[in-house]
Amino acid sequence: MGLRWLEAVLPLGIIAGFLCVMGNAQYFIHKAAHGRPKHIGNDVWDVAMERRDKKMMEMLASPSSSSSS
């Protein structure tokens, strides 16, 4: 009678295990698709700043036509 709580351990372990598996699957799928971990709390402002930064880095990396003359 004292070990009755053991009946709940197996279903709890199964549920917790599947939650961990699904969380890690999301992480690894996103990392494989985008090449970096998911940024938590990424809003419209963050997306706009990432686009701006990417555009600025591309502009700096490309040779400008005015400086090559």
Automatic annotation (TrEMBL):
<comment type="similarity">
    <text>Belongs to the complex I NDUFA1 subunit family.</text>
</comment>
<protein>
    <recommendedName>
        <fullName>NADH dehydrogenase [ubiquinone] 1 alpha subcomplex subunit 1</fullName>
    </recommendedName>
</protein>
<keyword id="KW-0496">Mitochondrion</keyword>
<keyword id="KW-0813">Transport</keyword>
<keyword id="KW-0472">Membrane</keyword>
<dbReference type="InterPro" id="IPR017384">
    <property type="entry name" value="NADH_Ub_cplx-1_asu_su-1"/>
</dbReference>
<dbReference type="Pfam" id="PF15879">
    <property type="entry name" value="MWFE"/>
</dbReference>
<keyword id="KW-0679">Respiratory chain</keyword>
<keyword id="KW-0812">Transmembrane</keyword>
<keyword id="KW-0999">Mitochondrion inner membrane</keyword>
<keyword id="KW-0249">Electron transport</keyword>
<comment type="function">
    <text>Accessory subunit of the mitochondrial membrane respiratory chain NADH dehydrogenase (Complex I), that is believed not to be involved in catalysis. Complex I functions in the transfer of electrons from NADH to the respiratory chain. The immediate electron acceptor for the enzyme is believed to be ubiquinone.</text>
</comment>
<keyword id="KW-1133">Transmembrane helix</keyword>
<feature type="transmembrane region" description="Helical">
    <location>
        <begin position="12"/>
        <end position="29"/>
    </location>
</feature>
